[in-house]
Automatic annotation (TrEMBL):
A Pfam family hit: GcrA
Superkingdom as given in the UniProt entry: Bacteria
Basic residues bias locations: 53-68
Disordered as annotated region, ranges: 49-78
Protein name per UniProt: GcrA cell cycle regulator
Xref: InterPro entries: GcrA (IPR011681)
Length: 160
DNA sequence: CCCTGATTCGC
DNA sequence: GCGAATCAGG
């Protein structure tokens, strides 16, 4: 089932994953067709109009760089469950739709993403099970691993 | 260095 | 329409 190209299913999956906060690379891996993360990003721009956001740098000098060849060795990527749900066969659309928006905080171990506040919330537990591993989950300060509130806490504790 | 998304532009 | 190259930020 490796039909190269963007099928409606593929677009839907990518779109939903993107909206749910998955990274482009993760989406590319999940789709597991010949798409790179750039392809995913490019598709999102066309599909969702990502370019609608105000850009910071107008990129003044798009000087033509050397483009010797476009051939790229596409490595086989492993499709792993991205939200704890194994998606191997069957219409992906049936497993993805339930995702409307971001899950409420705190985030679970499985839902925690790079930009979610990483401050652990289980410091009371000796041996927390994965299910008990909750993180703050609020949006982090860009460049940090914690949200503004947790950054202060972590800093005061000297755990930074 | 690695990663991320964003943009440009050739196909 | 598509995606690699490239860029810019973290």
């Amino acid at each position: 089932m490796t039909v190269k190209g963007w099928t409606e299913e593929r677009k839907q999956t990518a779109k939903t994953m993107w909206l749910s906060g998955q990274t482009a690379a993760a989406i590319a891996a999940e789709l597991d067709c010949g798409v790179s993360r750039n392809a995913v990003i490019g598709m999102m721009q066309r599909l969702l109009g990502t370019g609608a956001k105000p850009r910071k740098q107008p990129k003044p000098a798009p000087v033509k760089k050397v483009r010797p060849s476009r051939t790229s060795p596409r490595s086989t990527k492993v499709a792993a469950g991205w939200d704890g749900t194994t998606v191997i066969n069957g219409p992906v659309a049936e497993v993805v739709p339930p995702l409307v928006e971001q899950p409420p905080e705190p985030r679970t171990f499985w839902n925690l993403r790079l930009r979610d506040c990483h401050r652990p919330l289980w410091h009371h537990l000796e041996r927390p099970s994965v299910d008990a591993m909750l993180f703050c989950g609020k949006p982090v300060v860009p460049g940090s691993s914690w949200c503004p509130a947790c950054a202060v806490i972590v800093y005061q504790q000297g755990t930074a």
